[in-house]
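Hi V.,

You were right to ask for the full record rather than a summary. Here it is.
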Amino acid sequence: MLKILLSGNAEERKILEEVLLLSLNEYKISFNISNLSDPEKFKRSCLFNDDYNLIVMCLDGSTKYIFKGYSGSPLLYVVTGIMSFPPTAEEIDEKLIRNRELASFFSPGEYTVTHHGYTRKIPYEDIDYIRSDNKKTVLHLSNGETETVSKNIGKVASEINREYFAKSSPGLIVNTRNIYRIHNSSRDYKIIELKSGAKVELNSIYFEKFRDAYSLSVSRLASLKVLDE
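Predicted structure:
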């Protein structure tokens, strides 16, 4: 569960909670929100303890955020940033929801692989893309691993939640939530660069449908600053 602390006066905290709830509920993130109005108590005890994963505060007319977590406990890492106040849905999506550090709290679903008595549940956020391999299908994961499924890609496509995946070329389905950049390459195709660094092709004949699917799942396609022109 994502533990969130909101800091500011009563009106500021109410505004922050309202805008955060929209995104947290949309992405089905389990969370708990606490409130704090005393800035001195915040400095003394909340900033440096481990009670909260995410601290969001109104400060000097802006929204500041601090994400704290562990990378190989007990090593603490901290990610900070700034948004407008109140933050827009696009800012929350880009800087919080799609932040790599929050991935463990973002679980829109999972795909179950079963073969030879072996079962593995793979969270959607761990799947970069899915590629056809004759009558089988290969899941390419964000950590570089692959998982082969003894089903054709049409069957796999019918089993996944297509709210998160879109076809980008023949025999290839991409996780729209894991896209980092889309590069223009030629008139016939573009290159999709995923957060893991992997690159796959986006065929021009699929671009309109891909764009529509991506806009439905991310809702910020028009302002995607990394889309090369």
